[in-house]
Design brief:
6-stranded mixed sheet, alpha/beta, Rossmann fold, 2 domains
Length: about 230
Amino acid sequence: MSELYLVRHAQASFGAANYDQLSGLGHQQSRWLGEHLGNRGISFDTLVVGDMNRHHQTLDGICVGMGIDGSNRLVLPGLNEYNFTEMTEAYGLTYGDDPLYQQIAADPSDQKNYYRLLRKVLTVWTQDGIPDVPETWVDFKTRVNDSQQRIQAMADSGKSILAIGSGGSISTFVGLVLGIPDENIFDLNLQYKNTAISHFFFNAQKMNLSGFNGVPHLDTNKMEEFITYG
């Protein structure tokens, strides 16, 4: 059986002009995860990454922490996140009278209500209820499934793969493996921690989830203050 360690990127830059960059803490989270994996003697035959800055930066930090060369990496854009900014703009064209939408439009830094709006928009999106979105739910799910199939095609006895993606793509990946209904996939998304690991055993015929959303490198009294979700 092969193993897949599927990791959500480290903390990005919420509220900044460019969200698609790790925060200072995000860079540290990545290195901590790498140190943890190295201390456990875990090694990887293949490195896989989505095609976003925060994915590459997370993998860079993990490799620094492990003390390995991470320059040889397979890029799978199917692990990229949905474009929530454009999706929300499309939502506003149809549901602009939504008080929650208006509240976030007035104060984009309101993180608590931002995530409430995110959950609402994602629910409508999976129901195909937002016209003119940059990417439909079906298209998003299809590209995540393509990445899953490409990873599964790498199955080889004893092979170990590290892959970096985003909360939405990883939650959809997990949902596809478990057969979770579309309307429940984003219940996973909104609890996903930065640098959390979902662990799978797989072969060419089947993929099994053996661990979800774990942060063993941060799951101590000393480190728990560094657990983030954005």
